[in-house]
Amino acid sequence: MPIVDEEPVPPPPGRAARVADLALRVAGGVVVVVAAVLTVVLELLLSAVRVGGYLIGVSALIAIGANIALSWFAHETVGTRWAVVLPALPWFAIMSVAAVRTDEGDLLLAGDNWVGLAMIVTGAMTFAVMGFRQILAPPAPPR
């Protein structure tokens, strides 16, 4: 006779609970993609900020902080290790488009100054580190 009573095993979730969980995960993925688009636009807008005529590079710092937050949020809401790809893909796509000069001569992200290069490197490295951390992390306990 055991000293401690065994805890009852909860019943498996029903179909409605599984559908609701899937809907929340998809919604979280959509929110992450939209947030990534918004943050990359903000970073591009702030890449030319100057104080006293000198570039200050605030967009590189925002790229680091925003990409860490987006990667964490993607993993928490979607619940898979590959979720870091959701914010990384639109970020890289928009950065690639922003670095190409249009026929009219417009250029959003210049590669000839330190801010543009720093923003690309810090943003890419942040996503790489966050993705690598997810690969090395032990499996999460079932929810």
UniProtKB/TrEMBL annotation:
- What sections of the protein cross the membrane? 22-45, 51-70, 82-102, 114-136
Q: What is this protein called?
A: Uncharacterized protein
Q: Which UniProt keywords apply?
A: Membrane, Transmembrane, Transmembrane helix
Task: Report the source organism.
Answer: Micromonospora rosaria
Keyword Membrane carried by entry: yes
